[in-house]
Design goal:
Elements: E1 2-7, H1 14-29, E2 34-39, E3 53-57, H2 65-82, E4 87-90, E5 102-106, H3 117-120, H4 125-144, E6 147-150, H5 153-162, E7 170-172, E8 196-200, H6 210-222, E9 227-231, H7 239-250, E10 257-259, H8 265-274, E11 277-280, H9 289-296, E12 301-304, H10 307-313, E13 317-320, H11 325-337, H12 339-353, H13 358-370
Length: 371
């Protein structure tokens, strides 16, 4: 079977993790298939050189909506026919407007399906208009796909609410723990003078809600709690990331923030291992890989109180209103002063983390590609 994987706009973050992890699983489980990855030049190849995998780069589509639209309308359908592809597996929310190829759509962008006030207030007028256009195309693709895959039941319900005709074609496939499978954590050494190391591993997106965490850090600093926040923001190429650091300076917590920048996997593991607690304030997710990754390390989690975060973390996290820095600060302060509670939360986190894995996700996805 010839499978084309649409990864045209994937460059970094969780979507790229999914591409590489699922593709690795596909090759291990079904090496008899041909896997054709349709990508841009910025998409780093994970299995280049493997005889079952071939990357096809379309560099001219970058930076232009009109070029991307032309690619979907004309280039992609022609390419699929020319290469005699059996099934198109799109890891992007879009399908060609007109195609007779079997198609499986993996939806990973939650903002197309959530009516989130927290998200809307973080977007400019032009960003809201672009989002509206992308939603229309996404809903059309959902209506046309033979099968729609999502990473959570919360996302499945949101998709069905927007496109009711998809009800019998939506399936949930839980994914694994991001790029890292976790390592044993050292025992906690509690002490009133120890710095309370807080981690939030995430690339910049407006809905990631960094500001509430920085304001909570300000409150902890005012109360004399020796806390330090670890971030992984690309301040060189991302203006949004620079704005986060500027906000930290504005409210006077720059001294308590350590931004490591984009890190290789082994360096990201060091951040998880050094942290005492993981905070996930994001208000719009389809899955939330950093949460699963933190659980794989047995790291205690404080998460924004959203439906998706509760589904993924279940009893492994403590939840807070994503707009309430006072509540978040109070929860952090309580954990800092109660190491026994922190350790118990760590144990719950590690247990929940064992519910997620990539081998099962790849096998389940292949089942739907072959159906």
């Amino acid at each position: 079977m010839k499978i084309a994987i649409n990864a045209l706009t994937l460059r970094k973050g969780g979507t790229l993790v999914v591409l590489n992890k699922l593709l690795t699983g596909f090759v291990e489980i079904a090496p008899e298939n041909e896997y054709h990855v349709l990508a841009n030049l910025a998409t780093p190849p994970a299995l280049e050189g493997n005889p079952q995998v071939k990357y096809h780069h379309f560099y001219w589509t970058s930076g232009s909506y009109s070029r991307v639209a032309f690619w979907y309308v004309a280039v992609l359908p022609l390419w699929l026919r020319r290469h005699k592809i059996d099934v198109l597996f799109s890891q992007i929310c879009y399908l060609p407007p007109f195609t007779r190829r079997r198609s499986v759509l993996l939806l990973q962008d939650a903002k197309f399906f959530y009516n989130s006030k927290e998200l809307r207030k973080r977007l400019t007028v032009s960003e809201r208009f672009n989002l509206w256009l992308k939603k229309r195309w996404t809903y059309h693709s959902v209506g046309a796909a033979n099968r729609i895959l999502v990473q959570s039941d919360t996302m499945a319900r949101s998709v069905i609410a927007k496109v009711p005709s998809a009800r019998d074609r939506v399936s949930t496939v839980h994914h694994g723990p991001g790029i890292l499978n976790g390592q044993p954590r050292p025992a906690y050494r509690a002490g009133p003078s120890d710095t309370f190391e807080i981690a939030y591993v995430a690339i910049y997106r407006g809905y990631k809600n960094f500001e509430v965490l920085l304001r909570a850090l300000r409150l902890l600093d005012d109360e004399g709690v020796p806390a330090r926040l670890h971030l992984t923001l690309d301040v060189i190429d991302n203006p949004g990331a620079r704005a986060v650091m500027a906000y930290a300076r504005k409210i006077g917590v720059e001294h308590a923030v350590v931004n490591h920048g984009e890190l290789a996997p082994e360096r990201v593991a060091e951040v998880y291992l050094a942290a005492r607690v993981f905070v996930f304030p994001s208000v719009c997710e389809s899955f939330g890989f950093p949460q699963v990754e933190a659980m794989a390390f047995g790291l205690p989690i404080l998460a924004a109180d959203t439906a998706i975060n509760r589904e993924i973390c279940n009893q492994a996290a403590i939840y807070f209103d994503p707009d309430d820095e006072h509540l978040l600060a109070a929860q952090l302060r309580r954990l800092y002063k109660n190491p026994a509670e922190l350790s118990a939360l760590s144990e719950r986190s590690a247990r929940r983390g064992r519910d997620f894995g990539w081998t099962g996700a790849a096998a389940e996805t292949l089942k739907w590609l072959k159906a």
